[in-house]
Amino acid sequence: MPRRFGVLATLSSAVAALVLSGCSTPSGVGPTHKPAPRGFSIAQEAGTSASAPASSPPTGSVPPSSASQGNTPVTGDSSPLTAAIAQNVFDTSWPQFALDFAIGNTSGLAQFATTDVQHAVQGWFDCGCGPWPTAYQGVNMTAPPENAYPLSFLAEVQEHDYSQQPMVVEVVFSQSTASAPWLISYVVSYIDGSPLLTGTTMDSVPRATSTDVAAVGGQIANFFQSTFDTGTPPNTWPQTGAIQQETQRILSGRATNGQDNFTEDLHYTAGPHSVAFATPYGPFMCGEVRSHSVTTSATNAPIVQSASYAPFGPQLQPGSYSSVASDSLRDVCWGVSIDGSTHPISLFGGIYSRVGTPN
Q1: Residue 135: how many CB atoms within 10 A of its CB?
Q2: Phi and psi at residue 330, in whole multiples of 5°?
Q3: Backbone phi, psi, residue 172, to 5°
Q4: Which of 196, 305, 330, 341 has the greatest CB tally within 10 Å of its CB?
Q5: What is the mean pLDDT of each run of 10 residues along the chain (359 residues)?
Q6: What pLDDT is stored for residue 47 in this prediction?
Q7: Is 241 helix (H, G, I), strand (E, B) or coil?
Q8: Per-residue pLDDT, 80
Q9: Could you tell me if 161 and 47 are in contact, meaning their C-beta atoms sit under 8 angstroms apart?
């Protein structure tokens, strides 16, 4: 099994039970938890069980996407994004994206997804997770009132995973300018959980809460950083579902470093995030958590990547190295309930790049 240095591997998940409050803790890793109200909750991963048939890594390089950020006023109608337009964007991109994902067609993915999402997909393959499904049973969409580019909408896709368990995929589509293509900018999935949307509603204003929705991504990054640094997860959120699974990955990586006489310098950061979307339970947002690590030998011995790609997996060529740098990207979605409690739903992605410095 390839090593997972600081990887948040692939989190597709199901909604479980307890969650968190909105007060900051002195450690800066976010609110302490309390029982969750009905609605948002921490999810459990899909596609990562021991019986899951592993997907094959995609081949080829990842071309850059044409997405760009801006704040250009929309001319004409103040809310140009209609349900019909969103449905057409979804119908003309999601089925082919899912197929390209399933077969590892990276050049095809580049037509429908940002570079960051392509990196997250590479991380999915790095985790050895189950195959990505190509069929879906339904979709609901929502978007806030928008009068400037970039425009975005959330598509909540209902489908089944490789084992035929119900699976929900939260997908954010974005358009940077009027002439730019619509691209998938965030994607996160979970199993055994109920969808958050009950229908398609455009121009929906998210409910106000006492918690800064956009700050939660940073709290999640701080949570994982603290877990790695101290070897103990903060009490920000309960150890259940995807939070528990990722905590176990981090702690397992720390233990493996010690066994292999490796030293890892690992840093988590929050990346960009979407706009807030309205759900019946409170505002919902997706964003990125990134990590960069450099692994060296604690004994100054060379780090040897074998011909069978151990211990770092197929992203690093066999050879002798003085250090190995790893970069990961995970999309993550979270909700904030009306009472201000925060709920990381699930994550998706993993390590997409490993580069060794020759010894």
Answers
A1: 9
A2: -130, 130
A3: -105, 125
A4: 330
A5: 34 30 30 43 56 40 35 57 96 96 92 97 79 92 95 96 90 96 96 87 95 96 96 89 84 93 97 97 97 96 96 94 97 94 91 95
A6: 54
A7: helix
A8: 84
A9: yes
Which amino acid, residue 67? A
Q: b/e string for 47-78 if b means 16 or more Cβ within 10 A? A: bbeeebeebeebeeebeebebeeeeeeeeeee
Check residue 238 and give its pLDDT: 82
**Cβ count near 148 (within 10 Å):** 11
The label of the residue with tokens 């392509």 reads 118
CA 67/CA 286 separation, integer angstroms: 17
Looking up tokens 């006023």, which residue turns up? 73
Model confidence, pTM: 0.82
Ramachandran angles phi, psi of 171, nearest 5°: -125, 125
For residue 319, the cross-strand partners are 305
- Angle of helix 216-230 relative to helix 241-259, nearest 10 degrees, comes to 30
CA pair distance 60, 7, nearest whole angstrom:
22
Which helix (H) or strand (E) element contains residue 342?
strand 342-358
Q: Backbone phi, then psi, for 6, in 5-degree steps? A: 65, 20
